[in-house]
Amino acid sequence: MGKLYDELAKDYRLKEGLKTCINCGTCTAICPAAEFYKYDPRKIVDTVQRKDDAEIEALLKSDTIWYCGECMSCMTRCPRKNGAGLVIMALRNLSARLGYFTYSEKGRQLYPLTKIMTGNILKYGYCVYPETFKMEDHPEAGPVWEWHTQHLRDNMERLGANYQGKGPGILRKIPQESLDELKAIFDVTGGTERIETVEKYSRAKADEMGMSMDEYTTYTFKHCSEGHFNNED
Amino acid sequence: MIYQGKQKIWSEYQKEIPDDHWYYVRSCIRQNFFPASERMFTEITRNVLGKDIYETPSHTTCGGIAYHCDTIPQETVMTIVARQFALMTEAGYENYVASCITSFGNYAEILETWHEFPELETKIRELLWKACKKEFKKPKYLAHSSDLIYKFRGEIAAKGRFRLVDKETGEPLRIVEHIGCHYAKMFPHKGVGGAEYPCVLSGMIEAWGGQVIDYPERRHCCGYGFRQYHVQANRGYSLSNTHKKFESMEPYHPDAIITNCPGCPYFLDRWQYVIAEQTGKTYGRDGFGIPVFTYEELAGLVLGYDPWDLGLQLHQVAVEPFLDKIGIEYDPSAKYKGLDKKDILRPGLPQNLKCF
């Protein structure tokens, strides 16, 4: 048993998600990601189950572990009550902690994701927030949404929201003391440390790629190389 | 009561849903994209059904989306959730109802994990005390807000002005249901009907006069995939999964789709627009799409609320053909008005997807 497997084994998601895999492939058959990406959860679970550190390190540095959509359809169907999706979450967690995520294109997307998600939580108290859901990043949102964002306050008022208002209600302003508590939770639970770790390794990778952090953010958010999908060589 | 045979088997898929006194927590995505649905939930439960639904302004995101985007550690999301439970405890409630499926799945996962690993619950209690000086009791009952609408579907039908029936032919409308993956795929016993026979939405369709339409990819994910949507480079995954569902349901000619997940109605609506604009293909009749509704929107229509009070103008796929089929009245000129009929212009029209 290797050091990386030992680290994975401490993760409760691995404890819950990997009992004894019989390699039947039911998880792969039901998996929405496997249909489009070069992704096979059966192989990933089997690799982890073998406890070989070199193989696990290769996984942690690969695109493969970032293809899963965490829909957890695999959990329903596994005849041995494993959860390939939970194993993936444990692998991603370790990849983030060790900085291995910067070795792969899909892994490097953790930087813009962390900025968006944790930024929204700590500043506004929401995972998704109108001020940061920009039309230019979401052309698929369509002309109705473009109109909605141009008349956000009018539409929110029309539909009974309490947008940025005091008291309860839809998209209310989260009180500052609640935001302070969220920050304190991040500080004591490793959330803040995780943000700093992802930032540190991403800065080093951006340097290596000769990019400013703004360029790196845009590139990792938008760029998709060929070769990820089943219908590509 | 002694259950026997099929009745006994079916009873094992049922979920106990208390009648009243709920502590309500909102959904990040629904507040952004379907604000009127959350308003309709409190309107129906409080004002139509007379239930006690309590909300505090101090509750926040549960952190579920950030967690499933792998941007925060498990201890962080668990402690955020522990704080939500502490707010419920302070307010004197023990029935916890979440508006979001990701949240519902998050709460279910955390409660199950704490049940299996009590030492982790102890650790989270210590972390919450360290960060916020708060303590909590776990909810006695955990529900998703669609569970409550399901429970009261008969009362809603009895008070309703409309049924999901074609006014011309008298035939039930053909409705497809789409249940969010995190409702019961992870922990089947937490959902009505489990993962095998989930009836939280089909029960509403039948109670309100419609016909549930089955199709091969009924249980396939909408394609949200968290990082597969939030990162622009990955959205092909999200679009491809929605496309797969629509290709599968197309031969069955559904009149509408009902959903209970925050993201699903957004993706099933918006990707129809993208497919139409990229390929010219539309899935409804005469160049329209198939309208996608939240369960509160459909309940609101049944109860006779104005479609524009339900926020149906924020859908990209036009809902008017569906309203016309039932015979629901609406003022087309009021669709895109602000409060008190304030003129706030109107959206542009897509090239291919027919809209009003």
Helix-strand layout with pairing:
The complex is a heterodimer of chains A (about 230) and B (about 350).
Chain A: H1 3-9, H2 12-17, H3 26-30, H4 32-36, H5 41-50, H6 53-60, H7 73-77, H8 84-98, H9 105-108, H10 110-124, H11 142-150, H12 152-158, H13 176-189, H14 191-208, H15 213-222
Chain B: H1 5-11, E1 22-25, H2 28-33, H3 35-48, E2 53-54, H4 64-68, H5 74-91, E3 95-98, H6 101-116, H7 118-132, E4 141-144, H8 145-151, H9 153-159, E5 174-178, H10 181-184, H11 202-207, E6 211-212, H12 227-230, H13 235-249, E7 256-259, H14 263-279, E8 292-294, H15 295-303, H16 320-326
Parallel strand pairs in B: 1-2, 1-3, 3-4, 5-6, 5-7, 7-8
Helix pairs in contact in B: 3-15, 5-7, 6-7, 13-14
Descriptive report:
The complex is a heterodimer of chains A (233) and B (356). Chain A has 15 helices and no strands. Chain A has 233 residues and is mainly alpha-helical. Chain A has three domains: 3-107, Fumarate Reductase Iron-sulfur Protein, Chain B, domain 2, CATH 1.10.1060.10; 109-126 and 174-222, no CATH class; 139-173, no CATH class. The model of chain A has no long low-confidence stretch (mean pLDDT 97). With 356 residues, chain B is α/β, with parallel strands linked by helices. Chain B has two domains: 22-145, Up-down Bundle (Glutathione S-transferase Yfyf (Class Pi), Chain A, domain 2); 162-341, Rossmann fold. Chain B is 44% helix and 8% strand.
